[in-house]
Write a structure and sequence with these properties.
By secondary structure, this protein is mainly alpha-helical. The relative contact order is 0.05. The protein contains eleven helices and no strands.
């Protein structure tokens, strides 16, 4: 009964927060409600027994992405009135896409059937739980043993994407001094140290 109560509480707050994210005019308030929505989504993951997904949602999205986005929105002087000025011409296209999505969701849910053994399989204990292994430990074993090469490949792809984004956004300004690592490594002692014989009375 308590689990069901918390489920409906988290779900209701999540839905209300999601509606406020897209309906509020202040972008800072929208980001704050999006953080609240992420927290409630993490609560739903905890109720479902997926504590790893819950902690990942809080640490990655709330702790990094949304906070960074919040600081960017607060620091940038963006004229949102000017951005909303041309929204009226996109309303017909948005309504058309919305109608198509609603029709697709209607067809999906109208043809969706719950298998008779779904509840039995849902309540059945997993082999990892029978062995005394937590959900996070079982996921780590699968990720770092069976799919370790795909995990390494994903890391390489993200690294290449990060380097590419830095190179695309890097602008060389002629009035800014930049370091040359090759010239610094090849620099000799004579080029950086000068011995001056100051006579008495010649100093400052």
């Amino acid at each position: 009964m308590i689990v069901t109560l918390f489920f409906y509480l988290f779900a209701a707050v999540l839905l209300i927060s999601a509606l406020l994210v897209i309906s509020l005019r202040n972008p800072v308030h929208s980001v704050l409600f999006l953080i609240l929505a992420f927290f409630n989504g993490a609560g739903l993951f905890l109720l479902a027994g997926a504590e790893f997904l819950a902690m990942s949602l809080v640490i990655v999205y709330v702790g990094a992405v949304m906070v960074l986005f919040l600081f960017i929105v607060m620091m940038l002087d963006v004229d949102f009135a000017e951005l909303r000025a041309g929204m009226a011409e996109y309303v017909p296209v948005g309504l058309l896409i919305g109608v198509v999505l609603l029709a697709e969701l209607f067809f999906v849910f109208s043809a969706w059937m719950l298998a008779p053994e779904a509840m039995r399989l849902r309540m059945a204990p997993t082999p990892a739980a029978d062995a005394g292994v937590t959900n996070t430990e079982a996921l780590g074993r699968i990720l770092y043993t069976d799919y370790v090469y795909f995990f390494e490949l994903a890391g390489i792809i993200l690294l290449v994407a990060m380097i590419g984004a830095i190179m695309l956004s890097l602008h060389h300004r002629p009035d800014v001094k930049r370091q040359d690592p090759a010239a610094q490594s090849a620099r000799r002692r004579e080029e950086g140290v000068a011995l001056v014989d100051v006579k008495p009375g010649q100093g400052l």
